[in-house]
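Ticket #4471: structure output looks truncated?

Reporter: J.K.
Steps to reproduce: submitted the chain below (76 residues) through the standard prediction queue, then opened the result file.
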Amino acid sequence: ARQFRYPRIKMADLDEAEVILLSSEPYPFSQMDIDFFRHTCPDKIVVSVDATMFSWYGSRILRSAEYFVKLRNSID
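Returned output as attached by the reporter:
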C-alpha cells in the first residue's frame, strides 16, 4: 500500500462523526471546503480550527486551554 505523508480518510469514515474539525494546517481549508462538508454532511457540525493549538505544543501551551474551552463551547 502507498504511504502518504498525512492521514487520508474516506467520506464513509465520517459517518460516525458528530463534529468535523477542519484544520488550518498543514492544509489550509478554505470557506469553499467548509461549505462542501456542510453540504455533503448536513447532519454534522463543521468547524474550522487553529491547528497550532493542536500541534505547536511549546509555543501555544499557555493559550491552548482557553482556546479548547472556547472551541468546545462554540460546538454546543
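Triage note (M.O.): checked the attachment and the full C-alpha cell line is present. The mean pLDDT is 90.
Status: closed, working as intended.
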